[in-house]
Amino acid sequence: MNRPWFASKTYGIGASTPIRWEGWAVLAGFLALFFADVRLAPGVWRIAGAVALLVVFAAVCAWKTEGGWRWRWGGR
User: Fold this and answer.
1) Rounded to two decimals, what is the model's pTM?
2) For residues 26 and 41, what is the distance between their CA atoms, to the nearest angstrom?
3) Rounded distance, CA 76 to CA 64, Å?
4) What does the CA dihedral 13, 19, 23, 74 come to, rounded to 10 degrees?
5) Cα separations (Å) of 74 from 4, 8, 13, 17, 69?
6) Which of 15, 17, 26, 68 could be 61's S-S partner, Cβ–Cβ 3.0 to 4.6 Å?
7) What is the residue-wise DSSP string for the chain?
8) How many whole angstroms from its chain centre is CA 74?
9) How many CB atoms lie within 10 A of CB 4?
């Protein structure tokens, strides 16, 4: 089953809001790990961890967005 987890943005590139429970779970997991990293990781590891989490989250969003990530001018 290859159903999208995130809606595509109306304008620009990227994903909008989660449209399935899996998208909400990924978003909640990202936020929990991000805030734990910012709160608990020391020094430069804080930045490295935040960047790594952001890259993985963006990759999952791009993979599971309806229609993929491409430039949009208002039409879906």
Assistant:
1) 0.84
2) 21
3) 16
4) 0
5) 19, 11, 11, 16, 14
6) 15
7) ----SEEEPSEESSEEEE-SHHHHHHHHHHHHHHHHHHHH--HHHHHHHHHHHHHHHHHHHHHTBTT-S--EES--
8) 21
9) 18
What are the pLDDT tens digits along the chain (76 aa)?
688 999 888 898 888 889 999 999 999 999 999 999 999 999 899 999 999 999 999 999 999 998 888 888 876 5
Paired tokens of 65: 């967005």
Token output for 14: 């990227």
- Cα-atom radius of gyration of the chain, to the nearest Å? 14
Amino acid found at 45:
W
Residue ranges per structural domain of the chain:
6-73
